[in-house]
Here is the input.
Amino acid sequence: MRRSDAYETRARELAVLAGHDADARVAGPGGKMMPVWCTFRDAARAEHMAAEAAALVLPPQAPAFQNAPLRVFGQHDEATLAQMRNCMGVGNVVAGVVCADGHLGYAQPVGGVIAYERQISISGVGFDIGCGNMAVRLDTPYTDIKDRAAAILDDVRRVISFGVGRANAERAEHALFDDADAWRESDMHAYRQKAASQLGTVGSGNHYVDLMHDQDGFVWIGVHFGSRGLGHTSATRYLEAAGGQDGMNVLPTVLDEDSDSAGAISPRCNSPGAIPTRGGNGSWSACAKSSAAR
Here is the structure.
């Protein structure tokens, strides 16, 4: 039995409006045949997410922080921009930026950066708190390894664990895991073993290890690794402690910088009826969502 798709009905409508037979078969990624309506699914989803964002009711915002400047680099779908505009309407927002690689995220776009005055956005830190990117140029000409590139990447897949969980026995070590006091004092001891077991893994989704070459003919190794379970569980913990919501088009969870994260959290900008106030010393708190998606 075929699994239902929440966007199929609208995707079919878009296919018909474009003059296609929604059930005609076309080649999809990898040459696999699929119905034409599937090629309109992303458009149907983007349309739905934009409408959902537009329907979100924002809490009152202090006049001093309304209409803060927002710069947008590159071209983005309306759902991403609508989500960012919603974030700009919550809290002591000073300015915002959507980077060129921005896209829809959880409460705040990935690649979206917002500067707050005396506030911190848990949603801005997000689930990608442990994600990272790095690229290193080697002194090896690509011509020297061109014929062995596939074999080298096979070795990478054997040594490094990709996907959910750990697929091999190659373990990484770090002195931080030997510092029991640090884990206890940070109240993160419960995550210590999970972090240790996932260190050195890449993750699933859009995470990768790539072999590349530049215009000068030299080899580069690039990696985009995920925050894995450690990042997600720690973000979820603090999101729940602050009374925030987990989801795409939900209000961002914004706290005053002097909030007691142990539980006595001061009124939040996304609490019904809460009106943010301007900080006394004029300091800013900048919260950026990593432009490396999980």
